[in-house]
Specification:
Number of strands: 8
Oligomer: single chain
Distance between the termini: 33 Å
Number of domains: 1
Order of helices and strands: HEHEHHEEEEHEEHH
Length: 149
Amino acid sequence: MDASDDHEELESRCPRGKASRCSAAILQHGFARANMDIDLLIDTSPENVEKIKVTMMYLPDGAAREVRVEDFDDCNVVRVADGVSLMKQACGIDYEEAFPKTMIKETMGVLFRMATLELFWKMRQTVRAKDEADRIFIQNKLAEREGED
């Protein structure tokens, strides 16, 4: 199976969501943070939320079972378990806008979709101190990339 087959299989099997703002994903870009929260920017359609619930049932106490589509009517972020959140939007960016600006990575044989540096930059425009550190890192990485061209 070649890489494009792997990507097609990933897209067909997985719910429409990705690690967008999480520490584990920014680590893939080379920046280690103390916290390892996982924030997933998702398509909040009823069908997709159900797929995500099934996918996340391994979390402690079956917390994903309590997630409802209606939760996203009132909130942009729904905490599923300690360190795991589902997001309708991040800095005003929803799943449909973010998806074309993502990439597929492989870690320990597992394929996953994550934000590019450019998308991370847009999703880190907050007042949180930890996002400031991320912005500095991302800005430096983007400047390095420009210098290589």
